[in-house]
Structures are given as structure tokens and as C-alpha cells.
Amino acid sequence: MTNATTTARALMTADPVCVRASDTAHDAAQTMAREQLGSLPICGEDGRLTGMLTDRDLVVKVLAEGKDPRAVHAGELAQGEAVTIGADDDVTEILQTMAQHRVRRLPVIDGHELVGIVAQADVARAMPNPDTGVLVEALSYD
Asked: Confidence class of residue 141 from pLDDT cuts 50, 70 and 90?
């Protein structure tokens, strides 16, 4: 069980697998399949977070448009600046950020370093049942 003082650092999955901006969509899809992930942080050559890539991005922006997954780079698929959460931000801030941006996963940043990913499921598992309903409602899409 958690409370508002529980931080992203306590809930996150540490050391997330990253796809490089220069990796192809095909490389990213293989990494997602191998690691059984639905999304990956996109990191620049300097290791800094530049965006997020989802399996849906691969389907909609590459496959559905008839693009060659070996010719499209992950960095081309990033949509603006990634929504992030600070490692020491509390569960209330995590929930507000997820709801405001309608995202289910947040990269966790400590300074400029990507240190983890906190997912909707991580927060839901840590919360008492009444709060889980609030989380699901906040993230429901109209």
C-alpha cells in the first residue's frame, strides 16, 4: 500500500531498456518483442531521453503508411518532448501527470538522466483499491 509520500523512484522499473534515435523501427520492434514491452524510451546518442516509442506508433506511423521499417529511424517517430516525472515526485504528482497527458507510462528522470519507467500498473498495484478506481477513471479516454 502507498500514500502521497511514495515516490516515483519507489514505484518505477529501474534501468529501462532504451532504443537509440538512430535505431530503425525494425530494431525497435525486435527489442519490444524480445523484452515483451509495449513502449520504449528513445534516447539520443548522448543517452538523454528524446521521446517515447510505442507499439502503436510502429503500426500507425510505419506499417499502416507502407513505410519500410528498416528505413525509418526511431528518432523520426518521437512526438515532441517526452512527458516525464521526477524520481522524487510523489504518487499524487504521478497521477496528475498521467491524467493530464493521458499517458500510461512515464519516464522517470533524475536530473537529466533516465533512471526508470513508472507505469499505470505500478501505481495501481501500490494503491489501495478505492484509489485504483480513481486512477483508471482519470486515464480513461472519451
From this structure: low
Round to whole Å and give the CA distance between 57 and 133: 28
What is the Cα–Cα distance from 50 to 86, expressed in whole angstroms? 16
Residue 61, C-beta contacts closer than 8 angstroms, at least 6 positions apart: 67, 72, 77
Residue 124, domain CATH: 3.10.580.10
Instruction: Look at residue 31 and tell me if it is in a domain.
Output: yes
**Residue 1 in domain:** no
What does 32-89 look like in DSSP terms, one character per residue?
A: HHHHT-SEEEEE-TTS-EEEEEEHHHIIIIIITTT--TTTSBHHHH--SSPP-EETT-
Domain-embedded: residue 3: no
Residue showing cell 515526485: 89
Q: Looking at the 3D structure of the chain, how many domains does it have?
A: 1
The pair phi, psi for residue 88, each rounded to 5°, is -100, 5
Task: Fill in the DSSP letter of residue 132.
Answer: H
Confidence of residue 71 (pLDDT cuts 50, 70, 90): very high
Domain residue limits at 16: 8-139
